[in-house]
Protein 1
Amino acid sequence: MINDRDRFRQDKSPYERPNFPFRCGRIRIWGKPCSAGPGLNGACGGVSECRPFKNGDRWECRRTPSAGGACENGPSPDGSCCIQAPPCRPKRSLRGYRGRIGLLAFAFVVAIIAAFGFHDGAGALDTSSPGDLSGAHANFTQGVGCVACHDTHDKSASEWIQAAWTPGDLSENCSTCHTFGGPAQTPHNKVFTGEAALAASKTECVMCHTEHKGAAGEIVAMTDQQCHACHEKKFKSFSNGHPAFSKDFPSRRRTAIAFNHTSHFDKHFQNKRFVEKAPAQRCVTCHNAANADRNVPVRSFETTCAACHENQIAERDLHLLTFPELEENPFDKAEIIAACGPGEADQEAAAAIVEKLAAKPIKAAANETKLEARVREMKEKLGLIESPKKPETTNQANATPQEDEEFESVSTETLPPLAMMLLDVEDGEDPESYAEPVSELVNAMIESGDGAILDLLSERTDKAKQLLAGLSQELVRSVGCAWALNQEYEALSEPVLGGWYADELSLKYKPLRHGDPVVLGWLNLATSSDVSEDFRDQLLSSSEGAGACAKCHSVSTEKGVSDGPRKIEWRLGAQSGQKHVRYRHKPHLNLLGPGASCETCHKINPDAEFSAAFKQTDPLNYASNFRSIEKQTCMNCHAESKVKQECTLCHEYHDEHGFRKKMLSGDGGSPHSAPKMTKK
Amino acid sequence: MARKIPMSLVLFGVLALASFAALFWQSRLITVQLGDASILTGYTLFVTILLLGMFNARKKLSMIPLGRARTWLIFHVVLGVFALALFWLHTGGIWPLGLYEQLLAGSFYLVSASGVFGYLLQKALPSRLTHTGIEIIYDRIPAEIAEIRERAETLVIECTKETGSETVAQHYVGTLFWYFQKPRFLFAHLFGGDAAGFWLRGPGSAARRYLNDVEKKLFDEILDLAALKAHVDRHYVCQGVMKKWLFLHIPLAVSVVTLAVWHLILVNVYVL
Amino acid sequence: MERPQRWSTPFGPDMSDADITSLFERDDIAAIDIDRFPKHTPLEGVLRNDTRIVRYRSGDIVVREGDYGNSAFLVLKGNLRVVLAPKLPQSMLGRQNAKKKGFFEALSQLWTNSTIPEVRNLSGYEQQGLRGSSDSPDARVFLQDVPVVLNNHRTAMLREGSLFGELAALGRVPRTATIFSEDDAVLLEIRWQGLRELRKYDQGWRRKIDQRYRESALKNHLQESSMFARLDDTTLNAVADKVLFETYGAFDWNVSFQRLRERGSSQEAPLAKQGDYPDGLLMIRAGFARVSVQHGTGDRTITYLGAGDHFGLGELYAAWKNPDIEDMAMKTSISALGYVDVLRVPAPILEEHVFPFMDPPADTLMELAEHPVSDDALMEWAVEERFVNATRAMVIDLEKCVRCDDCVRACASTHGGNPRFRRHGKSSENLMVANACMHCTDPVCMIGCPTGAIHRSLQSGSVIINDMTCIGCATCANSCPYSNISMVAIRDSNDRPITDPESQKPIMKATKCDYCEGQPGGPACVRACPHDALKRVDFHDYNPTGSM
């Protein structure tokens, strides 16, 4: 006991053994433990205090000194200890319990994992999901479950072991649904070639997009520093270190329409004649701010340009065919007449002419005037007089004696480029090279009307029908007949609204309106590479081209190659080519403060050599008539402690992000496959 | 008396701070470079947890020179705080989203909390025990109480024999036996209150006024034993608590390690 | 005749009249002048009660080098051999062959430690040259092959009439050589009390003993002191001749200490009193002495002195320096803590050989007396409890200790699964000296071990017990004034107690802290304490506020 003076004596206080796993069970009832103590196996150490020893015929007490030494009463006569106690149920030591609880905790956790760890995602306790998917992904992967992204899910143990030691390819599965303008796993979906390909490291979707952040988790957030992970030019923020915008920003490329803003604001409408047509609301007169996005679209031609420029369209005809000057008459008059058959009027006219001519001396005289010569020629052609015999000495190759007659072509024109193309003639001014094709064409025209031209054109382009839309057979035949007879065609009437028509020696098309499909077709044909330069130049000429299209619509060559295939900029809108830049006008329109307008940022530059840019074809060789927008302009608002200015505000990482069609086909976890219903 | 701050605490503290700063900086760098910082922080955390567990192994390996347990404890405590900070760095928040991760985080927090609790206990209770003026080995407390009770009962019998009066015996059977039976007023002892003394001065000694001088003398001896037992009780409670808090800490630590191993396997199978 | 108290328990219980008579027939005994002995302690009584006749067989070890003994031997018959060189190996002496464990050997304790308490492998005991058991009075270790030992070691012969072991018995110094009996021998063993009487009352014995002491020990001791280091050999001999050596207190103070503690009082033999005239310098050679001053109605301990310390230098120096000052009394008292062995160097020797060549000594003793009394409480307590004897007392700071028992478990893990100390003990304020062996400067436990199983390790200086030669007699356990040696009943590997086949009494072994002898990394208990509460300290340089 604590008060004992000699409680520390070795024979009273044996070693305490805290490493022993059991304690005497008597401590359960706060009794005094026995000196024997429990056995190693947790059994009671004994019910008696000692095992008496028989010395001779006397029993001797053998109680240990620590238990108090030999007892007073000594052993019973039968040799048993006199102090007996009921056996106890030894108690585990605290540490013993602690160890057991530790083991139990381990077993419990293993059991929980075993019970729930291999359950599919729908389970009550899914050990494998570190959080809900974002709403969109959750929706699309619901039917398939975890395997939509994690191949190893639901795989065997051996595959797990293998998977644990091989690097994951989580990003591969993103392409099941997502598509991009380029490879999915290159920086900015760009295709790199050469040295750049070596430098550009492979990117993983999971580098930026981490899932399982909860249904409302932000999985596209990206910090400015992360952009700088790859970009060599590193800076702190847009307002602090971002490179200056290029000098031609945002008008890096020529506009589609050669619309000179400077002159339209300040020059043309100074004129009193046009003053009432002046754009009253400046920019928004033409630009539709209501639909503003990256571009502020220009309103239609009809509501903007037409007021002044519509008439100019019809003024420029398309010259399809001009009957050229021929040195010899290739036509068989009889055949032509047979084919065309002079009409009543023709015959009457012819009769009248015959009478007149008969009254005059028909012999060709030396002093014969040119007019008289022509009259005689016609008479001869008509068979009214005998043509004089050609001298024998002339060209033997000239076949018939009739051809020896002096032939005077009604036309002094040359073959126009369109016709050259049509007839595949190389030199439109050399009658020898075009005489035969022309005559064949004219014959064909007489024979099959517009079909003749269509046939020829079809050899060049498959859009022949569109190009000749509205061309009537009658018109073509009439023209053919007239020309075959070496006459000028006399149009019955002038076209009022436009369309195909012919005058003396030409077959033409008058544009009907802005966007006329026939002219459009011909102009597009002119841009193809296999047409002659003349053909192209004529059609695409801003001053002479058909429909005056090219006066406004700029003609460009690809990538600044001056003699490459042309492209006519029919469509409006920026073609900046900066895939990774985004800007939205709309939020800016009303935010720039009172008095602000488009011109707050877009400032007219009256000194720009604007029109010069449209005199050539390189769209990048351009001087906008707006001053370039400088970084400072944006920085007025987007700067430190002002409006936000992170990279992703203006830059878009991906190129043409889209989705695979199969998403919608119900294959591979479409939202329409109603996975919840499949369970039933 | 100002206690000296141990050198090892300063050393480990500085090391832990430096390591955490380095890890924090490195994980920021990795994130900025589009890498996955949780691989670094996760493995470091796992190793940290294993190192924390090594403290227990150290206790079982006393026979080989593995450094002083004192140093290990300081290391354990510093590393525990480090692990908590690292845990937050790893999860990027206080509470994760996945159910399994919540289980892991919950266990981790409980281990940390129980560790802090135990540490505070071990700072607070020893001096309270020392101030009782007695010292007793925990395993001997039941025997001690039994012996005190035996002594008290001997006194009661002696008193009855000597005086022929049963007043003390009746009081013992009616009131004091309850007290001598086993440790009493545990909570008061744990929190430093004197409920036992209060009880002994009140109900415990209520019979004193009815005793004669002889009885009073013996009764006071019984009360002295009761006061002694109050000290023993205090040792029982305080020493017990200093042992039993590990009943929380160690099984939870086992759970955390087991859960973390499975977490590691899952991450390697599913992602890495 | 008034019987001296110690004679109530005679040294040899069976000294017969015939034995006494035959002793008186010997020349060396007959030469003693009986008349010089006082009436209450006659020579015959000394012989009857303080001596015994012991018989040794060939090869029996009489004394071992390094042992502590409290008796001297007179050869009555037969020849003994003193081993000079090379020394006998430890294992031959029945000592533990202390080999440092390797890492894996240490680690293997993790699985080789038994869960059965105090389990022993019995086969080991049979290889030891051990005669007798705990019940027989002549249990001893013997050399198994004497001729081989004689061949391999240089020895000196001790013939009939030789006296040996008297220095260790009087001066509490370890035996300097191992002596074994070459053939069957009869020795008269004289315990220290008897030896003291003989020296006190018989001129011849005194001369013989003092002569031997001066020759062998005194000169060495003087040389070790810095004060006499500069003297040449002849001067030193002259000084040694003049130095007196004295013994105070009881040699077996540990027995009386426990008795006196039980009674609540203790008497200490005074060496010099405060106010006395200083006549010489006291040099402590063994044991401990308390230095005190009068304080209030009692004596206040200022410090305690151990071997190598000296007392009175300041006063003597001052007296020599200022011969005119009259009041040259001692400022402090000195008394023996149990037992103390001193050299008294007379003042004239100091004045001639020492004082002219030394700096004035610092008067540290008086400075110590200026501390508040409360500062000295710990030291006062340590002196009171004789913890000053400790070199490695286990001190536990109870304000830090969380009572986790890690120290005990660590101890068990390095001792075959058995703890070797008990985590309780006397305490003062927040410090508790646990019942673990303190590895005393003055190891009283080693006195009287019949087989030398308890001994001081040559490697570490720790006091250790060789379990192989321990016969379980409990002499050491009973001698230890601090109850730090525990007797345990051993068991076999089937958890059955091992008993003596004849008496069915359990076989006991003495066990105690061995300061993790042979374990790598020092004491496991200190390393295992997670709260820095447990320390092994020498109170001489222990400052709990500073170092803990």
Protein 2
Amino acid sequence: MSKLFRAFLRHPSGRIGLAIISLYLLAAILGTLGLTPHNPLKLFAIDRLKPPSATYWFGTDLLGRDTFSRLMVGIKQSMIIAFSSVALATLFGTVIGLLAAWWGTLWDGILMRIMDVLLAFPAILLALLIIAIVGPGTSTSVAAIAVVYTPIFARVVRGPALSLKQRDFVDAARTFGSSQPYILSRHLLLNLVAPLAVQVTLALAWALLTEAGLSFLGLGTQPPTPSLGLMLAESKNLMTQAPWLMIFPALTIMLGILGFNLTGDALRDILDPRMERREA
Amino acid sequence: MTPLLSVRDLRVGFGQTPAANEVVKGVSFDLASGETLAIVGESGSGKSVTALSVNRLVDFGGGHITHGSILLQRSDGSVLDVAKSDEKILRTIRGRDVGMIFQEPMTSLNPVHTVGAQIEEAFRLNRGLHGAEAERAALEVLDRVRIPDAKSRLGYYPHQLSGGMRQRVMIAMALASSPRLLIADEPTTALDVTVQAQIMALLAELKAETGMSMIFITHDIGLVAGIADHIMVMQHGLAVEQNTTDAVLDNPQHDYTRHLLNAVPHFTSGKAVRADNERTETSEPIVKVDDLVVRFPVKKGLFKPRGAIHAVDGVSFDLMPGETLAIVGESGSGKSTTARAILGLNEKHRGAIATKPGRSRRPIQMVFQDPFASLNPRLNVEALLAEPAIANGQKLDDALRTRMRFLLDRVGLPADVLTRYPHQFSGGQRQRLCIARVLMLNPDVVVLDEAVSALDVSVQARVLDLLVDLQHEFSLAYLFISHDMAVVERIAHRIAVMYAGQIVEIGEARSVLSDPQHSYTKRLISAVPAVERRRQHFALDATQVPSLVRPAGYEPPPANWREAGQDHRVRIEEAK
């Protein structure tokens, strides 16, 4: 594990990505603990639409709420949704992909065609559909984003799993009489950790964006809970008077996506089996 | 007479600091025109790097010539130092003066072009021929490499040709420019023995026809005996011995050459078979296979009738405890499919496999051909060895670890390797690990599917010795699957010869090897390269294995057998 961490520090984009994500996680933790500069929900009526200053680092909004504090809580909100939805998508996608590859033929056809249908819809559209049925809210967002990204994980897992299934060590395991769960977990899943890890970081970036998009449309996190997408939506009419209301949430979203993408790229380089051999 | 090629003190290094990381450490040799030099050595000896330096292909593999000269006489009589030439001049040498054929003919041909197009391209680039002219030349060169029905083969894609055919196409492409020097890098290693013999005979005839020189790289010193004029033996980047073929083979000077010559399995037509296990009338077979049939369905389209590949067709044999039955045959003969069916990895279409209850729940275990593919790279040795035991209800405890250490010691690995991962072992060590792993369950029968084929000759010899020792110690029965007659002679008590999914000859090893009855067995034995038989002439034999795809409902005619002696039966061949 420490070897992986050191490899990250050596990798130029890995270093930046890791720094950004650490910063965001710190903000999220502080936001959860309530250690924000101001109360994110409190209205400072006399300090409405103040530009960034020493008191209000990123300025205040129309109702006089501190943007910086609201961003910290917003990051927390986005992180919770992104991590839990990607965790669900990884779980379901991996199981579906593994089973499709392992059972093969008919089951492979059925499961992967269902995944293809899901993949055919644009992500936001599919999420809208689910929210329209169930109703908006944090848990609905999580479920919707999870459904959107499950097929991607199923595909990422199925391809390599199909080729791993043909390998001699799987045949050898069968001749020992190893159980199916044992073969699936030790021989297939363990060899899939690298591609999965890369896909998880990249999916986190996309989940962050999708979550912001959903709350921007008013379908994700509901006010008054701050969220990055909501803040962006509220800033829309005040763009000329109070540009900081738009710039800071937008930058936060962008930087977060960049952080996950850089980490994903670095992870892909580090976990590349060819690199591994060179190190060994 | 000036030599065609003169290499002096060649040093080649790799990586950031080539001088500090040398793979070839000062090699010198001369090659006269029309002569053949064989470079012999094991993996990592620098033999390929030396040869690739001659046309500077080594540059593309990250190599760098740090010292020495490579003087090549060109077709116009001028002499060029390849070691100091720039890429532009080198491009005119490759293909024109120096041709090359590689080990794996599938990967060196482009799969999306027909072989005709690829040969024509060689003519276009090297001789400037176009259109009908190029096609005529391609046809002619295919005839020269003895491809039957050359005209229709021009339209074939590489995957439609067999390995031997593809290697002939590669040779044809190399010949397109009538090179003065042909470098052959292990050209027959990936091929079956009888195909290997065909290619070797072809190369010898082409050499005589065209008068070109050849550098032949191989790990098998027995193979080059018939074709080389000179032999250079390499070890750790140095040429440890170089002399004429007869001198090297009959009177080796260096220890390593002697070691290589000893390690090469010498085929002696049944004189060296084991005599440690006599069959008795009373013993009961541990595995009895009766009329085993394995078929793989072939889909031809929606409405066309389905056929099937008859991979194994009516195979019967039995295996006594403590005995080695070798199944020999070429790729596609169904020998591996038979083994996999016995272990339940392939479904059988028909037939019975009866196993006597053994010492453990799973009395039959298998060692696979490729030691790099049969160990999960993400598990350490302890987890790898524990798997068979855990699968059969044991716990990973101290007793189990004690058994691991015992078996590791028994197969010749230190006991402290338990925490290491597969990539930290060499091929031979990995195969020992695989052997230790199958012994964890204390089996009665071990199926060895080409278990030593992927190993270097000297490693191969040691693993074979280990297998014989283990057989005595644990009273194992082996089902030894191999294409290599010389290896089989060392380990088998009985031999079954498979051809096109059927056993054509089965019997006691000495009897089968010394007095082969079936025409295929005879062909297989005559194809074995051997130092002793190097003066025999190889006749070119282009027989192909018949297609095993049969229409639905096809049943082969019943086999007729005749006795060729005590415990030696031969299938009667149909008159053609």
